[in-house]
Amino acid sequence: MRRKTAFIGMVILLLALLVEVVAAQGVTATVSRNLNMRVGPGTEWRRVATLPAGMAVNLDGKNVSGQWVRGVAASGQVGWLNVGFLAVDPAAVAALPVIERDAPLTVSAPGGGAPVAAPAAPAAPAAAPSGGATAIATSALNVRGGPGTGFQRVGRLLAGEAFAVDGRDASGAWLRGVTGSGQPGWVAARFVRGVDVGALAVVDGSTPVTAAAPAAPAAPAAPIASAAPLSGFAYGGHVLGMSDMTVNALRTAGMTWVKKQIRYTQGQDPNSVAGTINDVRGKGFRVLLGVVGSRDQLNNPNYFNDYAGFVGGLAALGADAIEVWNEPNIDREWPAGQISPQMYTQLLAAAYNGIKSRNPGTLVISGAPAPTGFFGGCSGGGCDDAPFLAGMAAAGAVNYMDCVGVHYNEGIVPPTQTSGDPRGEYFTRYFPGMVNTYYGAFGGARPLCFTELGYLSPEGFGPLPGGFAWAQNVTVGQQAAWLNQAVDLAAASGRVRLVIVWNIDYTEYGADPQGGYAIIRPGGGCPACEALRN
After folding, report:
1. CA gap 327, 507 in Å, rounded
2. Which of 348, 362, 353, 451 is nearest to 391 (CA)?
3. How far is CA 413 from the centre of its chain?
4. For the segment 22-50, what is each residue's pLDDT rounded down to a tens digit?
5. pLDDT for 305-346, tens place per residue?
6. Which alpha helices (DSSP H) does 360-474 contain, by range?
7. What's the predicted TM-score (pTM) here?
8. What is the pLDDT of residue 153?
9. Whether residue 152 sits in one domain with residue 83
10. Spatial separation of the C-alpha atoms in residues 443 and 282, rounded to whole Å
11. Does the residue 67 lie in any domain?
12. Is 234:256 a contact under the CB 8 Å cutoff?
């Protein structure tokens, strides 16, 4: 018994020594296959770099689960790695301390040298500004003591906060400046907007900081009074063009609205859309324009004001309704890493006043989020629609819209059904779930506008692509019946101002099977038109 006790004591002593060694020197691991290094412990965090198989990494900590470890690679990159793809002693990993995501680095890169973490920047900025620019944070981000994630965090910006910029690093990936509290430091350029990075001087640690703390950002301007009709109910369709066949389908279905989507490029003249507006209105329909800008231009200087001026011009030309952007909660339409309901609300506020200043009667619809629960919450990489709406509500979006934009395009059960979807019980599967969630997000203060409501059917086309196989068994008859039921339910709810059927006349049927949503089917028939007319 004494021998066993002595052995256990020796093991405990050796483990204690191992912990001390790990704490002092870190652990060296080798990448076993090409592996993404990330800003935080999880695949939801932005990728810092892709490390090649065989690269050495010195580790200095782990997350609570021990599945992710943090360290510095031989290339000098600092970040988090999934331990399952590293060749490393499990006992050494177990002995690593649990650390915060952005704790200061305590080990050097493989090959020796000082730890990558640098001392904090000087405590106070110089008093005089240098004529630099003011950047606006597009999401919450760290301010660091140097141009890289390996440098110590010295401050933090929240989405919408200002940062006075006086220079950049040689790569243009990092900007130096001063926060509103007077703290100098560096921020990643990809997480701010409003600055022409190429026009900034290249600076380093030896260059004095010349920017002064920015003034507090002005609150959004008070909303201009709306004269748009918010009561009543109407429905229409999203069209590709206004051909005779499309117009006949719209009229047969009893539709009075037409939606067209516009891709705005910064500097574009609103008069470029005048022909579309006049064509739709000239054929007896009211026109809704969904105005989507370029995610690649969104961070350009003065972009929000330019977008607001453009949609204001469309309102002056006679647009009856304008949807401000499209699905801003996913990176297909908004810059990856910057998805933020607060940032979107800033754009919405500017657009609303731009529209109302030119035509108070134009209906302003918030950009409908993509209906999804994929992200498990909300982060810069993507946001489920429910928390995105909650973030908009908290940011005051209700003051800058006449109608809440909604997309419902994944239904495979009747719109009267509230449970039993074979894919699982999530509110976006059901028409009533969408109505209740979106209406409740703003406390019932604004009606809903379904700017896309459609049912996908492969009938007449062939098998659906893999990402849409969930709708493989939906028939054209069901599409027609369900659209009719959804419009009836919306009209009777007292919560819905407008329904736009997605879509009328699209024909593309590839990776994105838009033709499968069209109510004009191959051969020219339109069962949904007949159903909606009755």
Report:
1. 22
2. 348
3. 28
4. 444 578 999 888 888 876 787 756 565 78
5. 999 999 999 999 999 999 999 999 999 999 888 899 999 999
6. 385-394, 431-441
7. 0.68
8. 86
9. no
10. 38
11. yes
12. yes
